[in-house]
Task: structure prediction
Amino acid sequence: MKKWKHEEEANLFVTINHEQKSVPKNLLDDLEGELKWGSDKPVEKIGAIAARLINVLNNDIGDPFYGKITRQGIPATDTTCLTVPALKEGLKKSGLLGKSIRSYKTYSPGAFSGSTDSETLDRARIALNHFFSLIRENAFDEWERGRKGFLCTNVGVQGYTLLLASLVSYMTENKKIDPKELTPQEVIFEIKAYANPVLKWVSTAKEKDFESRFKVQFGSGGPREYYFRLCAIIKSEFPGFTPEGMDDWEAERSEEKVETADKRLKEINIWVQKYIFDKFKQLYGTDGDTYWEKGVTDNKIKTEAYSKSQDEEYESRLPLENYLEFIQYKKIIEHKQNWPHFRTVFNIVQPGDKGIAKNIKWMDRINELRRIPAHATEKRQYKLEDYDYIDFVYEKLTENL
Result:
């Protein structure tokens, strides 16, 4: 009867979640620790342990998270700024409390999993308090700055939680020790040597150093970026420390790759423009603007180019084709009057495509990629597949030209 009542409460909670749009997510995540506790479903099991864990960490007097986590109905402050949904997301991604595998039907224990949910809660509580105490002890002022700093923030704590999971995995691989057979204190003791590069760094870093290394964009990609930047510090002393995804992360930020991609995008732009207008001059002659007037049939494109040219001093003005955007080249190329003249060079079938009458979708993708160097931000960066795509288009154009 008691179990039936518990399930009924959980179902009611789900109904409220779906039908009452005004229920704050922070409250839903907080309640999950009560309503889903003891669930046999792996996703609910992990979510409930994580939610209850966050609650007990917030109430552990003297420990790192005491009073740092916001509660529903109580305004956040600079020091009480961590949120339940963000911390819960970090715990779930870390796998420290276990993972849901085989189409979410099977529970796979994590480093701090115990024989019961309560034991898992206790083990994780001790481990997280010990691990984050090391961080706080080595950078107390920065930790206490809360959201004005770079440690005790949603992004920072998620990043360090992911790091803890990777350090435990590294310890397991190197020392052949199963963390589930150790006490939480022993686990933290075993990984401390691997964590020392980060602890040393935070202990001596100034505010400007934190800002330079960890000022990452907030959002879904922020914790991952923060985490890999921590991993890079450790890898500098432990070259074998390469958590899953780090090789790709490093490759995406390879200075040589970035420079090559930037250079090739610039050359692609130059090649496309030069070929188009050399062809127009060949077809319509170079007398005055005849090649421009007859080749560019879209009046809107002409007007926009002319308007941009007026922003420069008369003596510095260039021929109008120099004021076109890359995506406008596509419109010029695909016009039915022009396509026969450009098909042999610009008709590029993309990998995986069967090919159609006009294969110029690559110009849309290149146009998007050109925004990365043109409007550089921390969040707008090349992905590994972007490098491959740029190389593909570059080589095809080289061959066709």
Notes: The mean pLDDT is 89. Strands lie at 99-101, 106-108.
